[in-house]
Design goal:
Elements (H helix, E strand, L loop, with lengths): L8 H10 L6 E4 L4 H7 L6 E6 L2 H11 L8 E4 L13 E7 L1 H4 L11 H5 L3 E10 L11 H19 L10 H10 L2 E13 L1 H9 L2 H6 L3 H25 L2 E13 L1
Parallel strand pairs: 1-2, 1-4, 2-3, 4-5
Antiparallel strand pairs: 5-7, 6-7
Helix pairs in contact: 6-10, 8-10
Length: about 260
């Protein structure tokens, strides 16, 4: 059996919020390898994990195949489809960075996501998210500025190649939508981010397929060189300061009412 990784600070916080309350039948509403490894290690009765594509479904399932029980399942689906999982209900629901990611599968659906999840939620809904940092003014500090520039570079490459980038929303906006969707807010907590070299390389490398699809090769090459310049700038700050200390993640705990 594969060794379980230590849960992230956000997942450990969710475990503390859950306390002794049974997880029951759990829905990982926007699954990925990280969230599914955590969910599959919890004492649930069973779990259902939803991926946005068949490719992501297969990739996530492979990561936890040796821990799946007969009632556990990983399925592909789109929350924009009103018939998807219609009539099902889950004791605990996790929306791990789902709000931002859903833009690539159901554009402009974010205002309706929590109303869509409400009939499926018997008790608790846990949301993890990222405070938006790309559509803001240019930060004054070096770490904030290079992360901001990497985000704008990433999104530009994706848009130029015809791919929808993530669109994050602030915690305050999320709380408003939750209340409108008949959830009560139990807890909101922010976590400061320390970006390391893995984050930088992953963000820059993510653009490679997009750059390959851009027909104007001179533009693609100029963008590639700009990305490598940002990589070098970011690594230099990390080497000097240990991390890029900028931005915040958040966890919101809500209860169906």
């Amino acid at each position: 059996m594969a060794k379980l990784r230590k849960p992230s600070a956000l997942f450990r916080h969710i475990e503390r919020l859950q306390g002794d309350r049974p997880w029951g039948w759990m829905l990982d509403a926007g699954t990925g390898v990280n969230s599914l490894r955590w969910v599959s290690g919890l004492e649930t009765d069973r779990w259902t994990a939803v991926a946005g594509s068949a490719r992501e479904r297969d990739f996530s399932q492979e990561a936890v195949q040796d821990r799946m029980r007969s009632g556990d399942q990983v399925i592909a689906g789109n929350w924009g489809d009103p018939d998807f999982l219609k009539g099902e209900s889950f004791d605990t629901v996790l929306a791990d960075y789902l709000l931002g990611a859903i833009e690539g599968f159901a554009p402009y659906f974010q205002p309706y996501l929590f109303a869509r999840l409400r009939p499926l939620t018997k008790d608790r809904l846990y949301i993890t998210g990222l405070e938006p940092y790309v559509p803001t003014h240019r930060p004054e500090d070096a770490a904030g500025r290079v992360v901001w520039e990497i985000g704008r570079f990433r999104d530009s490459c994706m848009l130029l190649s015809g791919v929808m980038p993530y669109r994050e929303y602030p915690a305050l906006w999320v709380c408003d939508r939750l209340r409108e969707s008949r959830f009560s807010i139990l807890k909101v907590k922010h976590f400061d981010i320390r970006h390391g070299p893995k984050f930088v390389d992953a963000q820059i490398n993510l653009c490679a397929p997009s750059l390959d699809r851009i027909e104007d090769r001179s533009l693609a090459e100029a963008l590639r060189q700009h990305g490598e310049s940002l990589r070098q700038q970011a690594h230099k700050i990390i080497d000097s300061e240990g991390a890029l200390r900028t931005g915040q993640n958040y966890v919101i705990a809500a209860k169906a009412v």
